[in-house]
Specification:
CATH topology: D-Maltodextrin-Binding Protein, domain 2
Structural class: alpha/beta
Radius of gyration: 18 Å
Oligomer: single chain
Helix content: 25-40%
Shape: globular
Distance between the termini: 15 Å
Order of helices and strands: EEHEHEHEHHHH
Mean pLDDT: 89
CATH architecture: 3-Layer(aba) Sandwich
CATH superfamily: Periplasmic binding protein-like II
CATH class: Alpha Beta
Number of domains: 1
């Protein structure tokens, strides 16, 4: 799957570009794709020694709340939290796309993994046929968060929701990959 990550600042921020974040605190959920995406956006804009980060919650809801409280200058969010942030008046100072991954232990059979990949391929076709129809899953999956519950499908920028079938991360000859 391909994921959009956005480097977000609060509405009152004086930051308008990634370069403006030099020596300012950026909260990242270390060890996750959004953190690596954040580092990629920052490293492309300034020398490494100008980048200041801190560990943050893996929950984008918690990172968004911290951003709005002023605990840090910026953080990286994914959908639906990018849309939540925009509706709250936050600015996106940079966006990037990155590959998320599907990982299975050796306890998952090749057949079961192949079935998963086939299902994902079918889902990609359906989503691409009518993306607006499927953004409701973002809302459903964050039940209990009023900021997300307030969203409507028309609020989402569909260009941030690329649905593509991702090939296996390595050639079948060198890893335990299942054909689909």
């Amino acid at each position: 799957m391909i994921v959009c990550g956005a480097l977000v600042v609060p509405p009152t921020s004086t930051v308008f570009t990634p370069q403006d974040l030099a020596h300012k605190l950026v909260a990242l959920d270390y060890g996750n794709g959004t953190a690596y995406a954040g580092l990629q956006m920052l490293e492309g804009a300034m020398p490494r020694e100008a980048i200041t980060t801190r560990a943050a919650a893996t929950s984008p809801a918690e990172r968004f709340a911290g951003l709005m409280r002023g605990d840090f200058e910026a953080t990286v969010l994914q959908e639906p939290w990018i849309t939540v942030a925009e509706k709250a008046g936050c600015r996106l100072v940079s966006t990037t796309f990155f590959h998320g991954t599907w990982v299975a232990t050796d306890q998952v059979s090749v057949e079961a993994y192949a079935a998963l990949l086939r299902a994902l391929t079918r889902a990609v076709r359906r989503i691409n046929a009518d993306k607006r129809r499927y953004v409701s899953y973002f809302i459903r999956d964050w039940a209990g968060h009023p900021e997300v519950a307030a969203l409507r499908p028309d609020d989402f920028n569909l260009s941030r929701i690329p649905a593509t079938r991702q090939p296996p991360a390595c050639p079948a000859s060198t890893c335990r990959a299942a054909p689909c």
